[in-house]
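Hi R.,

As promised on Friday, here is the backbone we talked about, encoded as structure tokens. Could you run it through your design pipeline when you get a chance and send me back a sequence?
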């Protein structure tokens, strides 16, 4: 269980979408300091004396190192930055897959590794924003990258829980952000997503299942794979 009051928190991809909402709600919950990390920190629109814009490209090792040196007081890391290119998994050109793995998988690993000593020292938390697509391989390259993040999240928990750190995986279907601008389907608001995640962190959970899509797919993970996919395809057609 990790109270957010008086904590120092790092949020990646904080300049828009879900990341920006994390910063807003963390401040509402009386975080002492929030590092709003973005590739372009000038793009951070929020202003608050407790909010510190921080340059951070999660795919750039130098940027990650510099951010960890500056933000050496972080106790909670929110790995939110992500991209969705949704390319076929079998493609002669695998540049989209490689790009998604760099941002969605190697990025959170690099950031968490750079900040882990401080997180352990403060008995803090790591929050990884995965997706229902971690469990549903209909998003091609994006699904593969989020499945890798799911596995890495569980590995982080195996390594960090005995050291007193809460590791939270977050799973959800569509959320109303730039990422889903072209999607005509029901979407959860960023306000609801972030509220549920922060409630989950404060109540000590290991996974946050944000919406019905995540809950239904999670509940069916034990099914034989063909049956599981028939149910998923039926649910979305
Ligand atoms: N929206 C959904 O339906 C949905 C569903 C499930 C999971 N998710 C996950 O939720 C997270 C947030 O997504 P969102 O919906 O808020 O998307 P978004 O509005 O497209 O925002 C993505 C954020 O990630 C940042 N980012 C991208 N590449 C980066 C890099 N190399 N280094 C640092 N930051 C980088 C972007 O920064 P720039 O402005 O510089 O590009 C932006 O701040 C992602 O991990 C996404 O996969 C989203």
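Update: got your reply. Pasting your designed sequence below so it's all in one thread:
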């Amino acid at each position: 269980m990790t109270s957010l009051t008086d904590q120092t928190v790092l949020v990646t991809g904080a300049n828009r979408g879900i990341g920006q909402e994390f910063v807003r709600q963390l401040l509402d919950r009386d975080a002492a300091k929030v590092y709003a990390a973005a590739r372009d920190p000038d793009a951070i629109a929020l202003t608050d004396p407790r909010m510190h814009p921080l340059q951070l490209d999660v795919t750039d090792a130098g940027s990650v190192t510099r951010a960890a040196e500056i933000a050496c007081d972080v106790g909670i890391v929110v790995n939110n930055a992500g991209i969705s290119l949704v390319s076929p998994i079998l493609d002669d050109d695998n540049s989209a897959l490689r790009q998604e793995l760099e941002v969605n998988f190697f990025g959170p690993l690099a950031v968490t590794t750079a900040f882990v000593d401080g997180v352990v020292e403060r008995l803090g938390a790591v929050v990884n924003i995965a997706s229902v697509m971690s469990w549903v391989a209909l998003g091609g390259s994006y699904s593969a990258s989020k499945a890798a993040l799911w596995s890495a999240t569980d590995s982080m928990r195996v390594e960090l829980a005995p050291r007193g750190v809460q590791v939270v995986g977050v799973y959800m279907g569509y959320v109303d952000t730039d990422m889903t601008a072209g999607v005509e389907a029901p979407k959860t608001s960023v306000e609801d997503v972030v509220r549920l995640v922060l409630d989950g962190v404060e109540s000590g959970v290991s996974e946050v299942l944000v919406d019905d899509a995540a809950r239904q797919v999670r509940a069916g993970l034990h099914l034989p794979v063909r049956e599981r996919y028939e149910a998923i395809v039926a649910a979305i057609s």
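One thing I noticed while checking it: Residues 8-236 form a domain with the Rossmann fold fold (CATH 3.40.50.720).

Thanks again,
M.
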